[in-house]
Amino acid sequence: MKWINEELFMEKYMWLGSKVLVTIILTIGIIFTSLLAIIYTSMTVSTGRTLVYVLIILLALGIVVFWILGVFNILHTKKLVISMGIYFGMCLLVFVGYQWYVNYLDSLEVVSTQDVDLRAYQPFTEGNELVTFDEESTIDLENELPVLDGATALYPVYAAFAQAVYPEKDYPFYEGEVMVTQTPRAYENLLNDRADLIFVAGPSHQQKQAFETNGKELNMTPIGKEAFVFFVNVDNPVDELTVEEVQGIYSGEITNWKDVGGQDEAIKAFQRPENSGSQTTLEKIMDGVQLMEPPKDDVVSGMGGIIEETSDYRNHRNSIGFSFRYFANEMVEQGEIKFLEINGVYPDKASVQEGTYLFTDHFYAVSTESSHDNVAEFKDWILSNQGQELIEETGYVPVK
Length: 400
Hints:
This protein is an alpha/beta fold and 400 residues long. The protein is 45% helix and 15% strand. Strands 1, 2, 3, 5, 8, 9, 11 and 12 form an 8-stranded mixed β-sheet that branches. A two-stranded parallel sheet has the order 4-10. A two-stranded antiparallel ribbon has the order 6-7.
């Protein structure tokens, strides 16, 4: 009898030990899988990443806890099933709510440079949207072509220049003689002799310093004018701001729309990345008034690390953003946003041309003294009737 009892005890002990061993292996597997899920989330998710981390941890803990409660018969089967249903159901509801919120934010993103289809403006491609003229160009560059770069909003302009005077061939927008890397990178390429002529707004203080430090002088030729506009959701009752109110909003002194004639809602004032053409223009408008910190998004850097980046404009009812008129005009036409009058003047082509709209700025063809030999001739042509016609037909205001 004693031998039988010992045998039963050993069987029970071994069965319990196997349960413990399986539980340990399962827990290790869950931890490893959760770590992989967290790493993947950090590389692919920008909005609400912390909430996703918490959900992953809660799911992992839930699986382990309910496994222990079930396998060691701590909780009755019926109660266990109900508890699991409630717990994982709540996790599912949170995830569905999170996914709805992300989709909602995505639907609000407008005036983002990432959404521009640059292929539509690639020179010499069939059916492109570049402006042309019927007559022959007065210059014809065949050899040793200057490398062009610039801001996304100006790519339709200088791509049209290239189509008018460069030889017909393939000019991919991401590299080569007619590329577009956006304002900060364009200035870097000019500084490092990777571009000969760039088409941009004026340089920021940091960009000027970089050229001075490297002993290079910027040759800035104004070639056109454009309105710098502030815009809001089309349903926002505010139609105009004064210069002082703009400065107040972007310094953080004015924080509620009711203070400028709107509804009692907090103002969400979006900005652009540092050293971009539009952010540099905003800094000039602030005229020494300190800018507040912009809304931030966590994004994945090229090396897989996490960095903070200025959020793209999202068209909430209480949002305000800014851009150059040409860049945002399509969204106005689609009825998503509206431009604000500044000191009672609406930003359109006429007010830019007449100089009555206050936030009007030049855009430039910028080179250095070490730039390509053909740059001076190319600049002269841009300022000729033909070059200025292309600027005007594209949608900007010429300087002549």
